[in-house]
Design a protein that fits this description.
The chain has about 30 residues and is mostly helical. The protein has one helix spanning about 1-29. It is rod-shaped, with a radius of gyration of 13 Å.
Length: about 30
């Protein structure tokens, strides 16, 4: 259960980071 919770949190952070990265890439490109 703890591992699943960590995976959910990690996925949320990864999604946020990916969104920011794509936004930066869009601005730069």
């Amino acid at each position: 259960m703890i591992q699943k919770a960590l995976e959910k949190t990690g996925n949320r952070q990864t999604r946020a980071a990916n969104i920011l990265w794509h936004k930066r890439k869009g601005v730069a490109g």
